Amino acid sequence: PEAPPCRPQRFRAYDGYCNNLQNPYWGSANLRYLRFLPPNYGDGISQARQDGRGRALPSARTVSASMFQDQDRPHDHASMMTVAWGRFVFHDISHTAQAAGFEGARLKCCGVAEGFSHPECMPIAVPDRDQYYGRFGQRCLEYVRSSAAPRETCGLGPREQNNQVTSFLDGSTIYGSSEAEARFLRAFEGGQLLSQRTNDGEELPPPDITTLDCRRTAQEPPCFSSGDPRVNSDLGLGLMHTVWLREHNRVARSLQTSNPQWDDERTFQETRRIIGAQMQYITYNEFLPALLGPEVVERFGLRLENQGYFRGYDPKRLPGVTNVMAAVGVWALVSAAPAQVELFDPARFRRLGSLPETAFRPLELYSRLQQIAAGALMQHAQKMDNFMSRHAGVDLAAVAIQQGRDHGITGYTRWRQFCGLRAIDDFEGLKRVMSSDAAFRLSQLYSAVDDIDLLAGALSETPVEGGLVGPTLACIYAHQFRHLRVSDRYWFENPGQPSSFTEDQLRELRKTSLARVLCDNVFLRTGGGVVQPRTMRVPDPWLNNLMSCEDRLLASVDLDAWQDSSRAGSVPQSLLQDALADLTASQGGQFGRQGARGGFMRATAGSRSIHNQSEALEFATRRLLKATRKGDKRQDVIPALRQVDLSKFAAEFEEPAACEDEPLKPCNPRSPFRSLSGRCNNLRKPNLGKVGHSFRRVLPGLYEDGVSAPRSRSVTGSPLPSPRLVSFAVHGDLSHPHQRYTMMLMQLGQFIDHDIAHTPLSEGADGATLRCRACNSPERVNKECFPIPIPSNDPHFPSVSRKNPNIPQCLPFTRSMSGQRTLGSREQINQVTGYLDLSTVYGSDECARDELRLFRSGLLNMSAHPAGREFKPLLSEVDGAADCISSNGRCFIAGDTRVSEQPGLTSMHTIFAREHNRIARTLQSLNPHWDDERVFQEARKIVGAIFQRIVFAEFLPRTLGWESVSQWGLHLLEEGYYNGYDPTCDVGSFNEFATAAFRFGHTLLPPVLKLVGPAYDELGGLKLTDAFFNSQTLYRKDRLDQLLRGLLSTPMENFDNHVTEMVTKHLFEAKSVPFSGLDLVAINLQRGRDHGLRTYNDYRAFCSQPRARTFADLEGHIPRATLRAIGSVYRDVEDIDVFTGGLSEFPLAGAVVGPTFSCLLSFQFQRLRRCDRFWHETGDPTVRFSSDQLAQLRKASLAKIICQNSDTTRFITRKVLDVYDPFL
């Protein structure tokens, strides 16, 4: 009959109907299998395949007994989870029906009198002397032919077989392949599937007391019912069906909670849609790479998109599963299944024993599901080779071979030809692709090499690199799974369909992992558990180590992306309009050209404009909070306020220009160069990461009033300890030089930090610096004053005035300038870009362009060295810079205003500026036709790339350790291009990174910067107290080189809780004024509270470490003496500031920092690479380097830059971050 017309729908039909709109039945259930090669029947129509001479092939049992012996051959790496998942997926796309008798009765083919055998019987002959069956006198194995299927056109031709399930990877194993099956499985409440509960509360698939395929006694519980009747065939399949039933119901509950307006049908279908996408993602992202190896995955285009949509859907491609997949590919996986199922303790992952003979007996799932799941993760799968375990006394290899002949699957050598593999013309040729023993056995079984059954030959092949199967099976699987993807209109990555996911939803779905699904539905249900991230492999102590299910690295799919509307919609528009009445007025000062240069923490004009708006937003937030209903909790209302679209109330709010053309020009997607401001890096959202963005957060801010008041009270209700008290009690001065790394690591770290983050301080009227030393300055001077109390027992600073002991003394502290761009709690401004773009050299906006560039030959503006022309130039200088204490009143200028903070930092600025000019001169000589702008931009692009390589290849491995670098994907590529750019990721600097974690370098500081001569002889040193903001020291002959040599030859201090008193007592001290110094540690702690950072315990939990309930819980994580000091100042473990806690941890093995800071740093640097369209390794043809250029950039090192831009340094260590060692 003619198919009714199809219209695009949001949800799949259960039976696959209307997947293809022009050909509605394509890919539906109960259609024939497709074929890659024509069938090979003995009579050309339906008779089982014969040998090349028209004779019967050797008995399938004879082949099995010789080729598929029962031996224990565990794979070195593959886990049993690979087998369980593979069978679960194969059953989703293939179910071959057997011919049946009257009213569906099962046919009996062995022991039937001659002449009474059913025509669909094709029993397997057993030799008289069979080593196994001969003992029982058995001469026949049951085999009933697969049921025949008509062609789509009902035309004539050779026999075809029927596929009872849809030809799409659509979760039919869970939901069935028909409306009737699905209705039988549904609860019709809350979108959930039917399930049963054990006495222990375990959720299992519903019971099925009618199934014939269940080996149980009358007293034992029944087997299970699911979308596929093979659910009970083994424990691995039963486990998968259980896990995914639970996952469906878990997702449905979450969707129903966030969308209470949805009815049962909508919730069920949306959940089914998500589950299908997760199955597709795990299959292509985890299973296929393990099965086929990465090379085959790449060659056949099976790698999923890491961003955006897949545009390869072909409506002209006939969907379907191929006959060779059903008759050989599905069976081949059986060779990887061991004879016994091992049980493991899910808490300790200790082997508990094994379960023999579990085929069609899944009853252990009632009581041992967690042990079975842990066993599947820990037990090694068997090798996929010509050895196969016997299951329940059934010779599955013989059945598989017989089915291949039944289906007319042509011989092994013909399939190698189909796959474009090397031809095999004789048995001797087999030795090139398999073991000599396997080749010999095949030569004894078959008359000719072309007669070899596909299963016997393909499973005997040597596996492809990184895969489980040989090249022939890899080819067959790869062709099939590519076909599944390109022929499915509902494929989860497809765009432009009613069924398409949004980009936000796609981004969440790409967080799916089988490890996370197992955690959520097996191990976390009882309060804990561990799992390896790559479940298809057994755990190892390196990159696949067991980790807690609460580990943040096991990302979860955020189902909020499926929420229909934000709760912010509940805020009345009239109330918003009234509260935001002052917003437009706050926009009077747009970004403009910066006048005189301010101090090193002073705000730019752009930051002041943002701050004006943020003040109005904070005021509006407080008005809205007062007006909300009494029952509404502040912690619920504030996140909702963040979602309010402010452009409705102030049209120009979103885009104040940062020294750029007004109005802003559209982005040019063909420009190969970054903008200075970071604008247009992301073409979808041009202002992501742009200068002036608000700091991002790893965790929501923690303010005393929920809006902006700094955290000031302990969880006990008492005041928090003064940061100055914490500083001298916990972070005293104690020198422990590092055994491995030099001061250059510290200095490079500061240079990197200034490239990523710069927070301006609040100001008074007309940009005046606030005087916040007096303890009452918040009331007397400005509410943005937040002075640090000096404790009465302070060992250095007087706690009361010497003139009046009734007046307490404080250390000055000014709050950071506010810069939130939304309603809600306070955020801070980052007045550099959110990219690793060397803004320290080039600046972060057009404001700096005129004074930094020479506008000739692409050069930066530099000044002649006062010591003579034989020395390379120094940075440009400026008169009257705030904070400058040089006797001549001049300090250096660069892309970052903090350039003159201390001479080691100035030296880094200088060598990178020199490197720019060195490269610019070379480019100009090679390309004399280039103008100044082209030379400048090309040189900037090259130097920026070199800087990125130094950070990721030299700094991060030492700071984080190789294990963290691997876990977070921070490895640079040795060849080729990086294709991991994600235009949807949240770019920018994170508050926790800038305000706490990356300040770990303060513990690495020595009291003195050593000066070292050309022969690496020590010449003396510069006290830090004498070096702050004093640029004149670099005027001296060879002083810059002396400083650099000192940095690369002197050990840095150990990472620990100790910090030199040069910065805890004498920071920025005026020698003529007693006690005028500051305390850097106290400032860091106060800054964390100012910025609303959460506590150390919160970040421990975020970083997948156990939350401490008492100080004693931190033993083993923090040295005992340090822990005692921490306990002496903090009343509760929940009060510990993240800077103190992170700095006090034991370093990770092979790393400088401890686990909490390693996690926060990795989180930041991962995004600096992934979110940057101009990342130097990118394969984007518009902005990328050529492969030859990239090969040259990969030779770059910090040592080379220092050599090329020094004056008197003639030799240097290859790795300047490492302490010199003649062996290393």
UniProtKB/TrEMBL annotation:
SUPFAM superfamilies: Heme-dependent peroxidases (SSF48113)
Top-level EC class: oxidoreductase
This protein's GO CC annotations: extracellular region
InterPro entries: Haem_peroxidase_animal, Haem_peroxidase_sf, Haem_peroxidase_sf_animal
Residues that bind heme b: 1002
UniProt xrefs under Gene3D superfamilies: Haem peroxidase domain superfamily, animal type
Keyword Oxidoreductase included in the entry's annotation: yes
CDD domains for this protein: peroxinectin_like
Swiss-Prot/TrEMBL keywords: Heme, Iron, Metal-binding, Oxidoreductase, Peroxidase, Secreted, Signal
GO biological process, one term: response to oxidative stress
Pfam families: An_peroxidase
Subcellular location: Secreted
Family matches, as PANTHER family: LD42267P, OXIDASE/PEROXIDASE
Name of the protein described by the UniProt record: Peroxidase, putative
